[in-house]
């Protein structure tokens, strides 16, 4: 009888304790889930904070400003810039005062070439008109002085005159083209040489020293008679 009572008490206690055990397990699981969520949230915040710190550090790193006092141009880059565009090498070398000279030379050569070419065509047409003996083609009259007329006596003179002027303007046109090429080549050479000499050290100590000196001529073994007095000059630059 006592054994049955004891078994009944144990079974009743076990059944009574089961809800509390399940509730405790649920509470434990909730705590574990809550802790895991907090850890993940902490990790996320930590990662975001690290990104913010990295971004702030990146903003703090600024590109250093170029010191124009110590900057030196590269000769090859100056050469290629001058080849691509006239005057670009001088701009790269920061020699802006040379730009009016270069562009002035280019514009002047282009204008001279265009003007001489127009005059060459005009005198070529006038020369052909005066050589064909056709009175309907007389474009040469626009080059005649006021009151001057072409007759049989002066025809050969005017033919020779128009021929010489035609050849002269053609020669000047060709010369203008070669001068234009020369100005372009000079701008390229100037840009390269200027960039190459940018690191050439020019000392501010420019001095000339003049002092007397004894010069040994070696004409005589006697040191008293073999020496001469002269002037020693030295230039520091």
Layout of helices and strands:
Layout: H1 2-60, H2 75-84, H3 88-92, H4 99-131, H5 155-196, E1 207-216, H6 223-226, E2 227-236
Antiparallel strand pairs: 1-2
Q: Strand sequence of the main sheet, in spatial order?
A: 1-2
Q: For the residues shown, what is the average pLDDT?
A: 74
Structural class: mainly alpha
- Determine Rg (CA atoms, Å): 50 Å
Report helical residue fraction.
55-70%
Oligomer: single chain
Q: Sum up the overall morphology in one term.
A: elongated
Tell me the total number of β-strands: 2
Low-confidence stretches: 1-8, 19-24, 31-45
* Largest sheet: number of strands, sense, barrel closure: 2 strands, antiparallel
Determine the N-to-C terminus distance. 129 Å
Proportion of residues in β-strands: 5-15%
Q: H/E series, N to C?
A: HHHHHEHE
| Distinct helical segment count | 6
